[in-house]
## 1
Amino acid sequence: MSEVSRVQRAPDDLFLRIVAGEVPATIVHSDDLVVAFEDVNPQAPVHVLVIPRERHENVAQLAAAAPATLARLVEVAQRIADERCGGEYRLVFNTGTAVGQSVFHVHGHVLGGRGFTWPPG
């Protein structure tokens, strides 16, 4: 088994377990590249996570390894925002523990349904 395959099947990757159906989630979109589901701890009226089916630790790694998958992730985020919050949304990727990344499988937070301030945090 290659190193990539072993990492992609890591049992501690919560999001891979969601993709595999081992952990329940409210799935709002699923295709051959990405899966989107409701965040269990929503920070806005609309808070959906969009993830690639394959494991990449952060958005930069995803962009380098699979740019078409990143493009699909953004397309799905837009579709969710169009359906749920009139197309006005914030798409957030955290990279690193210091900025809040707690699951090291890239995921975009689609946030909307209320006003946001700038800067965030």
## 2
Amino acid sequence: MSDLDPIIHAPNRLQICAMLATSAELDFKLIKLQLDVSDSVLSKQLKILEEAEYIVTSKRSNQGRPCTWVSLTEYGRAAFNTHVAALKKIIA
């Protein structure tokens, strides 16, 4: 099915996009805890999404500690919505 996005379709990346679709932004640690993955696994998945311009990351201080924040871009949100619609079509 052509509307399935191979970048989003990988389970961890699909979960990342699903979490970000309901939030303006999330911090790296929260995403890591939700996915139950290592820093390196999450970093790799975020890099793939970032290279596709589906997410943006920013580094800010949170209570004096550096923290990476992640958010979906408009392009990423549209790609996610198209992917979800394709999955719903398959299920129907």
